[in-house]
Amino acid sequence: MGYYDDQDGQRRGKENRRGGGRFGYFLSGLIGVIVGALVVALLFPSIFGKTNPDSAAVDSNSVTNTNPSTPKTTKTVSLKVTTDITKAVEKTEKAVVGVSNIQKQSIWSDDMFGQDSKSSSSQEAGSGSGIIYKKVGDKAYVVTNYHVIEGANALEVTLSNGKKLSAKLVGSDKYTDLAVLQIDGSNVTTVSQFGDSDALKLGETVIAIGNPLGEEFAGSVTEGIVSGLNRTVPVDIDEDGTEDWQEEVIQTDAAINPGNSGGALVNIAGQVVGINSMKISNESVEGIGFSIPINSAKPVIHQLETKGKITRPALGVGIVNVSDIPAYQQKETLKLPANVTTGVVIGSVENGSPASKAGLKEFDVIYKLDDQKIDNIVELRKFLYEHKQPGDKVKVSVYRNGQPKTFTLTLGTASGSN
């Protein structure tokens, strides 16, 4: 049964029990020492020459000298980032400049006798951006927006390195909102490259470069996409409340702010595909900016550079939209058919003009040029400006006293009339 009845067996059993007890005490003590050492190691890792793993992750770039008398040193990591966007910006950024519109302003003050005196000084009235697109000899040429230079008595261009140069206005055109300036080219190191705006695709990456809010933020870069192609934006050029023109533009969500006007819209190859022009400024609208397509701008730029102005054809008449005429006058004065509610009314005819020579009269209502239907002033101008030149012939179809008539005339050169 495992029990011994003789004395020797009982003695051996007692000896064995005493020996087993001593071994058990030793084993228990050893386990206690090991557990205690593990607890200490976890609580005080530095005793064993180990580092907190979390601390090591945070300071992985730091090298610390264990000698307390030696100052700590930190290893600096330099990261050079090059992307398609940074390459595109580097290619064009130095060709984008600031344009300052300087105007004379009257200042009234009291003289020593208490009398009002008037003096004038030249001050910056506004600023925008421009693009250096050409350098010939010691001259360089800059394209910008017409509204950036409008009303200026003097113009100043600020290069990307901060150097300021006086600029000469070579030519400007309010309808296309473009102007060309000439500057000293000795300090010009970069000329932009024009791309193909007709090749742009919806969603394509584009970059706007310019001086939003003036020189303080010169050379700012914003990135976005082509949000819309073949857009038209109504423009009231003479600010009389009537739409004068439909400007063809590229829509983008790249941020365009005041001061960006005249700056570059660049594709991923660093080519200028648009000239930043305007944005929709409305609290409920976010990220709708517009640029003039470079393919539309190039012939205008060339003509402004070589001729100083854009030569456009004209009929020699003053006009108003039929839609702006009260319905009663449409019926009683113009005697238009009941189904005619659009067209362009001739309000005046210049003496000796093409219209006068052809026999057009006041209150004639133009509804067609050649075979193109004309509903308003914008359509009339776009047809003439985009399809005709001074000296070309055009057929003008009108309603006179409600009856259709057609006249053929030779177009003149536009001055202040159409």
UniProtKB/TrEMBL annotation:
GO terms for molecular function: serine-type endopeptidase activity. The lineage of its organism: Bacteria, Bacillati, Bacillota, Bacilli, Bacillales. GO terms for biological process: proteolysis. This is PDZ domain-containing protein. It comes from Heyndrickxia coagulans (Weizmannia coagulans). The chain crosses the membrane at residues 23-44. Residues 313-402 form the PDZ domain. Belongs to the peptidase S1C family. Residues 55-74 are annotated as: Disordered.
